[in-house]
């Protein structure tokens, strides 16, 4: 079950400049910076009420974010929703005909298990499912 809007992911070329811009815009510094080696991306998170803004910058030419920005301008990259049970949601979405980009959830930024829904099956929007990782969760 989808429980809330977890975050908006924004693709940026220059993470430092974007962090400064959003720090000024939001009137607060980010609460977390993180490198996700498996995705070749650096992230910065801002808390905004009950949701978050995630800035993403690719760290290699093979990064999905670097490739994305080679074809599109900076801006909204994905919409992420918190789910209670990511594996159950993945199965439900498959049954409903959605195309998932992951066979299994993987570790993402901000202590989450994540899975992405292909934009072609979600009206052109890259949708991320997020489940918080607890001490008992296994990948």
From TrEMBL:
PROSITE patterns: VOC
CDD domains: MMCE (cd07249)
Matching Pfam families: Glyoxalase_4
Entries under SUPFAM superfamilies matching the protein: Glyoxalase/Bleomycin resistance protein/Dihydroxybiphenyl dioxygenase (SSF54593)
Gene Ontology annotations of biological process type: L-methylmalonyl-CoA metabolic process
GO molecular function list: metal ion binding; methylmalonyl-CoA epimerase activity
Keyword Metal-binding: yes
Record's keyword terms, sorted: Isomerase, Metal-binding
PANTHER family xrefs: METHYLMALONYL-COA EPIMERASE (PTHR43048), METHYLMALONYL-COA EPIMERASE, MITOCHONDRIAL (PTHR43048:SF3)
Entry protein name: Methylmalonyl-CoA epimerase
Originating species: Hymenobacter cellulosilyticus
């Amino acid at each position: 079950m989808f429980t809330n809007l977890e975050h908006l992911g924004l693709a940026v070329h220059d993470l430092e400049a974007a962090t400064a811009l959003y720090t000024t815009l939001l009137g607060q510094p980010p609460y977390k910076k993180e490198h996700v080696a498996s995705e070749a991306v650096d992230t910065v998170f801002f808390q905004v009420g009950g949701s978050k803004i995630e800035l993403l910058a690719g760290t290699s030419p093979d990064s999905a974010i670097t490739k994305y920005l080679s074809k599109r301008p900076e801006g909204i990259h994905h919409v992420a929703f918190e789910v209670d049970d990511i594996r159950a949601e993945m199965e439900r979405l498959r049954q409903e005909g959605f195309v998932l980009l992951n066979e299994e959830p993987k570790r993402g930024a901000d202590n989450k298990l994540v899975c992405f829904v292909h934009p072609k099956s979600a009206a052109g929007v890259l949708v991320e499912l997020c489940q918080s990782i607890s001490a008992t969760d296994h990948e």
